[in-house]
Amino acid sequence: MALSPAARVGNIGTGERRKRLVFGIVAFGVGVVITVLLVVARAPLVWRLPLFLVFYFGALGVFQARDKT
Questions:
Q1: How far is residue 65's CA from residue 22's CA, in Å, rounded to a whole number?
Q2: Fewest Cβ atoms nearer than 10 Å: which of 25, 38, 47, 59?
Q3: For 4-61, what is each residue's pLDDT tens digit?
Q4: Angle, in degrees to the nearest 10, between helices 14-40 and 51-67
Q5: d(Cα 45, Cα 34) in Å, to the nearest integer?
Q6: Is the Cα dihedral 53, 54, 60, 61 positive or negative?
Q7: DSSP 8-state class, residue 6
Q8: Computed over its alpha carbons, how large is the radius of gyration of the chain?
Q9: For residues 43 and 4, what is the distance between their CA atoms, to the nearest angstrom?
């Protein structure tokens, strides 16, 4: 059963949401910079695979901040 947006209440305050949003944006930025450096350096694909975790944590921070969880 899905709740309406008005019925959902966030379980974290604005300060914690801001921290998670900043963490997510910084993680995305770091991921993009490292990706560009590895592509320019023509690094093997195996070296680029761990960037999945950086982008995952970035998305996690942004989505948690957006959904107030």
A1: 9
A2: 47
A3: 665 566 677 889 999 999 999 999 999 999 999 999 999 999 999 999 999 999 999 9
A4: 160
A5: 13
A6: positive
A7: T
A8: 16
A9: 47
Q: What is the pLDDT of residue 7?
A: 59
CA separation, residue 53 to residues 2, 6, 28, 39, 56 (Å): 30, 33, 10, 17, 5
What is the rounded CA–CA span in Å between residue 3 and residue 24?
Answer: 26
User: Can you read off the two tokens belonging to residue 2?
Assistant: 């899905």
pTM for the whole structure = 0.79
pLDDT at site 13: 85
Record the tokens describing residue 55, joined without a space: 């982008």
